[in-house]
């Protein structure tokens, strides 16, 4: 994969999707298990260093 700049945090959801906190690019990236990539629609990130994915059946806070 290209385009990541200092990926600090990684997390998987129950379906196997990988989420990456891309520190120097100030974004979150989603990599679905079946392929593809997209930047997460989150504004205002400043050097994100971690992330969390909620468990099934639980709301994110």
Which key terms come to mind for this protein?
61 residues, mainly beta
Give the secondary structure arrangement, pairings included.
Elements: E1 7-12, E2 18-22, E3 27-31, E4 38-39
Antiparallel strand pairs: 1-2, 2-3, 3-4
Q: How would you describe this protein?
A:
- The protein is mainly beta and 61 residues long.
- It contains no helices and four strands.
- The chain has strands spanning 7-12, 18-22, 27-31, 38-39.
- The chain is globular.
- The mean pLDDT is 80.
In a nutshell, what does this entry contain?
With 61 residues, this protein is mainly beta. It is built from no helices and four strands.
The end-to-end span amounts to 30 Å
Q: Number of DSSP helices?
A: 0
Helix content: under 10%
Write down the secondary-structure element order. Answer: EEEE
């Amino acid at each position: 994969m290209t385009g990541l700049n200092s990926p600090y945090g990684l997390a998987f959801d129950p379906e196997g999707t990988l989420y990456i906190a891309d520190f120097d690019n100030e974004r979150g990236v989603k990599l679905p298990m079946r392929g593809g990539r997209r930047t997460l629609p989150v504004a205002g990130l400043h050097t994100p260093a971690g992330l969390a994915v909620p468990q099934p059946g639980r709301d994110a806070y």
